Each structure stands twice: as structure tokens, then as C-alpha cells.
Amino acid sequence: MRKQIAAANWKMNLTLGQAEKLLDNLLAIDWTPKTHQEVVIAVPAPYLFPALAKLKASGREHIYIASQNAYSEVSGAYTGETSAEMLQSLGVTHVILGHSERREHFHETDEVLAKKVDTSLAYHLIPIFCCGEPLSIREAGTQNAFVARQIEKSLFHLDVTSLQKVVIAYEPIWAIGTGKTASSAQAQEMHAFLRSVLAGKYGATVAEKMSILYGGSVKAANANELFACADVDGGLVGGASLVAGEFEAIIRALQ
Ligand code: 13P
Fold it and tell me: Which atom of ligand 1 is the closest one to the Cα of 176?
């Protein structure tokens, strides 16, 4: 069975005190995960260490702390950057790569992202690799080719073993932070297409095993319908993950 994941992306929000309170609330949720279900919480970099300590103290299983980024180079004179090796040494298990906000504001290209994927995998981090089209591409009806190209350019150099460590997140840019969610039909259509692209390169058996999350205005009110889609294996959640009750409902919507 494919992994079903509820992933929180806190982005650049919350003070330490607020972050600690939210994490305490999330760790206190009375939730018994099925074997294929996971929760991943991507916190701002300064909160990784305290978050990992809280997680450990809680004894909770199936909950993981993620970084929102990692640098492409292994180490060296890159002031302000965080390496995959540092994250691994902290006990971080997952890293979001290729988020549209990083592509837009920090000019991350498909090529740089391919390198970040390699470096993260080399230090045993699970990349949550984001793809997704802007509104203009959706309106032109060329979203499939656009998104296929993103994953081909940044993932298709991987061998099959490495590829299977990656989680893909489809996040249409027009649905991020806009309150305008892709319909479950739009999400399902793109996820099935992405799976067919993966199958074309790596075979249907591999493609069937890959988790593909949907992101873009996921909230308690729409998570059930989205997660019920055959090819939607959970969500990557921004705004609604900052409210414990909302994110709890999203976790409970995992199938
Ligand atoms: P929102 O859930 O706020 O739309 O953000 C989605 C996102 O970018 C998650 O990575």
C-alpha cells in the first residue's frame, strides 16, 4: 500500500513560543496511525532542533520533522545556507525541495533542484519534491507538459532505488495561499498523469508505489474529498497547518 502523508509546511511563520505551542498541540492529538500513514511537519530552520527534541520526548511514531530546504553543495563557504549533512546530524528525516516559492523568490532552477535532490538523498533525507504550474499555464491548457518537464529535469536522472525514496507534491501555484483549491477532479487528473509519466520512465510497478501529495489551499473542509481520489496520497498543507484543529482534521482525513 502506498504511504499516505499529511505534511505541514509552516513556511516563514510563528515565533519560537508559538511554534512550541502548536507542536505540543499536534503531538497531543489522539490519533492512531495505520501502518501506511505518516505526518510530516516542516518547521522553520531555527526550530528544527527544539522540534526534534519535543518529538523525541513525546515518543510519538509516524510523525517526522522536516526541513523546508537544504543546500545543493555538501559543505563550504556558503554563508547562511543549511546542508543536508547538518540536517541529517540533527535527526531530520525529510526535506521539502522545489517549492514554488523557492523557485520564484530564490530562483531555484530545475538543474539546481536536481543537485539538491542528489545531495539530500546522499544524506538519507527523503525529498518532498514539489512541482506545479502557474495560472497562465493552466489557462493555456499546457499544465501536463509543464509539470512533466519539472519532474523529468530534476528527478529522472535518478536510478530506480533513489527515485522510490522521493515523495512528489503537486502544488498548482494558482491554488497556493489563494483559498482557491484545485477541484478533486483536477487534482486526480494531474496525479494520474504524473503517475503515468513515472510509469513511462520507471515502469508501472514503481509508479504505483510512489506517493503523490496534493498542495494548494488544503483545509479541513476539503481534505476528505481530495484524499479520497485514487491517485492523491495525502496533502502538503500551508495555511491550515498553522491551526492545530484544522491540521488535526486533515490528518484524520488520510485514507
Ligand atoms: P496553502 O495550503 O497555504 O495554500 O499552501 C500550500 C503550500 O504551499 C504548501 O507547501
Answer: 4
Ligand 1: which residue has its CA nearest to atom 1?
A: 238
The CA 237 to ligand 1 mean position distance, Å, reads: 5
Q: Which residues contact 136 (CB under 8 A, 6 or more apart)?
A: none
How confident is the model over 193-248, as pLDDT tens digits? 999 999 999 999 999 999 999 999 999 999 999 999 999 999 999 999 999 999 99
Atom of ligand 1 nearest to the CA of 240: 2
- Joined grid coordinates for residue 201: 520512465
Strand partners, 42: 9, 66
Stated length of the chain? 255
Distance CA 5, CA 203 (A): 23
Distance CA 152, CA 194 (A): 10
* Long-range CB pairs of 186-189, under 8 A, 24+ apart, other chains included: 187/214, 187/226, 187/229, 187/232, 188/229, 188/230, 188/231, 188/232
Q: How confident is the model at residue 44 (pLDDT cuts 50, 70, 90)?
A: very high
User: How far is it, in rounded angstroms, from Cα 84 to Cα 90?
Assistant: 10
Å from CA of 236 to ligand 1 middle: 7
Reply yes or no on whether 124 is catalytic.
no
Q: Which residues are near ligand 1 (CB < 6 Å)?
A: 9, 99, 171, 176-177, 215-218, 236-240
In tens, the pLDDT along 136-187 reads 999 999 999 999 999 999 999 999 999 999 999 999 999 998 878 889 999 9
- Atom of ligand 1 minimally distant from the CA of 96: 10
Whether the pLDDT of residue 1 is over 90: the answer is: no
CATH superfamily to which 4-252 belongs? Aldolase class I (3.20.20.70)
